[in-house]
Amino acid sequence: MALRVVVHNIAGEIVVGPSEFQRPVLGSQLRSWVRAVVSRPFRLAHGDHLVVEKPLQIGEQNEEEVLLNIVFLQNLCVVTWGFRHSGGDSSAVAHRLAAGVTSIT
User: Fold this and answer.
1) C-alpha dist (Å) from residue 61 to 11, 30, 49, 85, 87
2) What is the mean pLDDT of each run of 10 residues along the chain (105 residues)?
3) Which of 20, 22, 58, 100 has the fewest CB atoms lying closer than 10 Å?
4) CA separation for the pair 44, 54 (Å, rounded)
């Protein structure tokens, strides 16, 4: 039996689908399916689980339809400012702020 899959955004609007897949459906298959339509960076969630690249079987035997949520990721950047004489010159640490920032304390 096929499994109908629909991807919604946070507002409940359909982004991709519905489409039918043969069971078992792997998370990697679903990501590829969405990637063919969505060009922005995203994450998929099924219930309280992220749909990641590793194999993840989705759709219990008795389910006819699975709803996935899509979260779009933004490209964020770090901006520093201030007067040079008051510590506002960030050139000494610019290389550390260029990439890989996960938190600022």
Assistant:
1) 28, 18, 18, 66, 61
2) 86 90 82 90 78 59 78 69 67 68 61
3) 100
4) 13
